[in-house]
Records
---
Amino acid sequence: MNRTDIKKILQANELAPKKKLGQNFLVHQATAERIVELAEVGPADTIIEIGVGLGSLTLPLCQRAGRVIGIEFDSGILKYHQNNKSLPENTQIIHQDILKTDFAQLAREHGSPLKIIANLPYSISNPLLFKLLQHRDIMAWAVLMLQKEVGVRLCAAPGTKEYGVLSVLFGECATVKNLMQISPEQFHPRPKVESVVVKITFQPRVEQDYNSELLVKLVKTGFQKRRKTLINCLAASPLLSLSKEQAGRALQETGLPETIRGEALTIADYIRLTKVVEGLL
């Protein structure tokens, strides 16, 4: 499916890319096929595709996967597929907002952790990433097309300007691999930014001796005001109930200087800090 095909389908069905939904249709078929190949989809897989669009990714997915469940929010696109029977029989489309989709129910229905592929609207990238984190125990992997800036943040190292909350939280529970970069010319309409495709492979949760919810609070606190020292962020955080004295003690027991900023801590540092703070609360 190329740019000409996409434009013809849109025109013939009185459809148009909706800016409010962040719709940018992939028009380079070889790229779609390469994404599915790099995702290592097999005939035993049930794949959840977020944003079916006109089927650029769906069609190569259906050729490799046993079953594809597409979550599509645009009722016009849903109607197009229903009227034209444009997708193979091993595809099911659900008309739903992905941010309201019950992932736990989907996992129960097909009896295994979820495998997700998505060309995401950039506007929902962060909410969806946090939703994946919340459901990490029922996630196998997710292959996501993201704004390049977001993809870089997921893989960023401590001390860099890109390093942030998502870098730490995904580093704690998953491995993130950059699969490929995609230029704006491969979409209709062309976005103003470059895209990347990443694969997030979630690690099985092992028995842990720290509070995951507290870890999230500490990480969010550490990056809330990047130019402030961590001790001041901890003492001022509405997510915690620490005095400055307690915050200083926590850093000391973790082996961190009082001058350190949250962006300098590794994942292991945040986990050690979580254990210490839990004992102070």
---
Amino acid sequence: MVKYFDFELEIEKLDQLIDKFDIDKTKDSKELQNLKNQREELFKKIYSRLNPWQKVEVSRHSNRPHTLDYLNYIFEDLVFLHGDKKYSDDNAVLGGIAKINKDSVIFLGTEKGNSMETRIKHNFGMAKPEGYRKAQRLILLAEKFKLPVVTFVDTAGAFPGKEAEERGQSESIASSIMTFLKAKIPTISIIIGEGGSGGAIGIATSDKVLMLEHSTYSVISPEGCASILWRSTEFAQEAANTLKLTSDDCKKFNIIDEVIPEIPGGAHRFPKDQANKIKSYIIENLTKLKEVSIDRLVNDRKNKYLNITSNI
């Protein structure tokens, strides 16, 4: 069952009418098609005008595809690799080897889970130090076998718990960023939902950073920002407008390289179609990156991130 937002009341009414038609097969099929056409137009109208807070809501939708969904839709011959070889395995970060368009790649991604059981298993997508050290291990493995890396980012941020701090959370994120910067392989990152703080940057310091149209990328969540600036999370919507966290904002300030359009109605309604679109963008960007020499890739990547806010 689809969860509707407050700004989707008209869509909900049309869906209810369409459901009645599906039950009663004797009704006019032309009228049913007319209702579906109206819904398509509403999708385009509403989703082309979302404000920053509405985009935050869409990026957090419980049915929005997560990393594991996209891995299964986009790649073939998936082999998951586990552990950081130092402490343990972090289920919040998935990684391994797969094929796309017959080419082998290393994949990484933060996984939130889609049920209470899996959300607890994956710690709601909030990685611990061992997750970032797993990412570093796989980057080095990719270098060894000269494989490109594709990462999927969907996290509210790194895990802020006591045990994570004791095991060196900030150091592990910093080391992960450094490993990405030095990696002598092509790297692509895709923000598919929430891109929160250093927890996101830890696996998104890539040659090309792509972002789904209705995802968000920010140094802090709107609620966190509101609690600091206004001492109350009630101002989260105002904070969302101030943070410049939308894909259009990030593209404007050159924080990301490209915006991947979403199917009107959101990725949560059309996960397979959205995955196909992402797959085409990955293949296109991998092809372009392979044409660039490794030395130039590394040099351009370092210059990009050292000067990332110079135009703001």
---
Amino acid sequence: MSLPAALATAPTADPVKVAGFPPAVEGTITIAGCFGAFLRRLVPMPAAYGEARAAGTEVAAALRAELYPRTQIDVSGVDHLIAGSVGKRTAIAPIQSVDLLYVLPPRLAAPRAADAVKIIAAVLQDRFTVADADGTGAAVRREDMTVKVWPARQQDGAFLMPSPATLDRASGWSITNPIAEAATLRLSDSLYGGRPRLLLAALKAWRLHGDVPIEPFALELLVLEFYGTAPRAFAIDKALPEFWGWLRSRAGTGVRPPGGRSMVDVGDRWQAKAKGAYWRATLAEHHIKERRLVDAAVEWRQALGPAFPVPGETPLKKLPLFKGVQR
């Protein structure tokens, strides 16, 4: 999917350097440089976000043509919202999915969320090939990206979107406010020099690498709470173990999204993974004090995944602190 020429040719800022990390040309001669290289591999460039938004906009246009065929006003700016990690710019590369909230016209405002999902799925099936559909929305493939469409209804400046039905929400609708979520994240970023968003990127890499049983949205909300409740370390290699240690106090609890009413369950099945990552970070800090940068980087790679660079990138056969353990 092609981008507008102005966006495709415009120079882009380095979001990692802007947040205070060494420039890319300095390489991995320090642990800060290693984290800088790691985050540059994780954080999508503006062009990637542009392509993802273009995929969502294309699907929204198809829905608009079918659901608003005779409208007398242009609803292209108010009938949909790119939400989720693309809308809030919290995705990690490569971007593989886009969340699209699509507001149904009043004549099709279904009382039950399940009926609204059926309407959306039927329209998408007629225009595209529906890759998947569940109780919350329908997904279509656009080139190398999946666009998931969540039917929505406007509600007091926020949106109603499908969620699992409960005794309190028998209709299956729940309130979400992606705009408030994005504004809260931007505020936290402005106070901490862009570090909350980068910490979230590192935690998403940890989640994927370690198959950690916690939802990305829960991680996002926990990062906001982490930075919002007390002064935190600025350096990412200090903030990560601090977060993993703090996370234990939130096991089995819930967190309320900005502008939302329902609590998001944090769960507790991730505790062993968080404890393991914490101790790897502690070992890495010990190696740094002993001026063993390579050993420290290997520990961070074991915690965060293969995207974390090891100076020299020499293939390792053994872990530095566990001489009898093979990789």
